[in-house]
Amino acid sequence: MTLKDGVALEQRSETDLVKAASQGERSAYALLVKRHYKAVFLVCLGVLGNTHDAEDAAQETMIKGFEKLRQLRDADQFGCWIARIARNVSVNAVRRQAAVRKTLNSRTDEPRGRDSRNDDLSEAVGRLPWDLRLPLVMYYYDGRSVKSVAETLDISTSSVYLKLRTAIQELHETLTAAGDRS
Amino acid sequence: MKETCREMRDRIADYTLGALGERQMRDVEAHLEQCDACREYSEALAAHSEGLIALGRQVEVDMEARCDRVLETLAEMPAPDAGAGPGLLWMGRLARLAVAAVLVLGVGIAIGRLTAPQPIDVEQLRADLQNSITSALKPAVEQETLTRVDERLLAALDAANSELKAQIGAQVRRDLQAFAAEFVTGSEAMVDRRLNDLVQLIEAARLKDRQRVARAFEQVELNRRRDRTEIGRGFQSLAVLTSEPSTPVNN
User: Fold this and answer.
1) How high is the pLDDT of residue B127?
2) What does CATH list as the number for A12-181?
3) Which of residues 106-125 of A touch B (CB under 8 A)?
């Protein structure tokens, strides 16, 4: 692919890229991955709570997207479609982890792989239930609007606001309790 | 915390999220001006929001490298199977029905041909079945086996624990009984020795008493004899003194 081809590819619309990728054009899918990787990774991070597992889940999502792209009917909806795959992949990973923990009788819920530079806030985010953490991460980390979060998660905007409110209040309680203990 | 403040907390969270209308915002701001505790709460939530945005920026640092790793993996993947393409998915309902009918017919014919009497490779069928059953059941069997091994190990551990407890209990009981027996035997022997000593002491005392009494009787006898002698002599002297001069005294 020449530089000229690359520029031309960059300028193509999302719909064109999806159609080209579904016909086997790898460079088109690579561009879709570049455009949507961050959103996909953050959905995975929102569900799983740590960057290590989120990276694995995001990779699995992109591979699934590549394999199933032909099943996408509305090419305009690639962003929402791939984000929903990311959520399903991550939720399945959470269930597998829970099953493993149950089998091993391990009670630890400590999220692993957290960066050492992250502070109490990061730990408190890791302790939130995933259905509260997901909209919180999409809203704050990804800078998405409440409407966009609602569309991706296929829930109402009021539900998103409610989850965000609950999440930030739980964060505050966790951090206050930690402060009282220390 | 006042009841008003308690009710206000949800609205303060909504205020932090920018989810309130203008009028509700003004109400919250008016309350925050009057209430130190709620103002502190609002400031804390705002600080958490800023912290979350900063965390988002931290996570974004390695994003490009992560994305590149995914692209490398995708580049190594084979092209997906050329199954039903988007053209087929976007066909009209009638066309899809027609394709489905052709597929059903084709599958029916294929099944008919496959199920027609022909020599069956039993060994191959057995091997295929064995492989299929093995691959389907292996994970479940492994999991089940691990679970059972865990259960048996735990049960064995419990049994060994109970047996050890019973052994220790029995040993303690035996030791206590032996100790009690030794104690009782030792006590009896000591009591016997003390009683013998006592008997000997009593015997010795009785012997001394008898000797003392015997000596006392002897002394009394001696005294009695001396007294008799004295009395005899006294009577003689009396007789001498009281007798007539003409009358001779015959002893």
Assistant:
1) 80
2) 1.10.1740.10
3) 115, 117-119, 121-122, 125
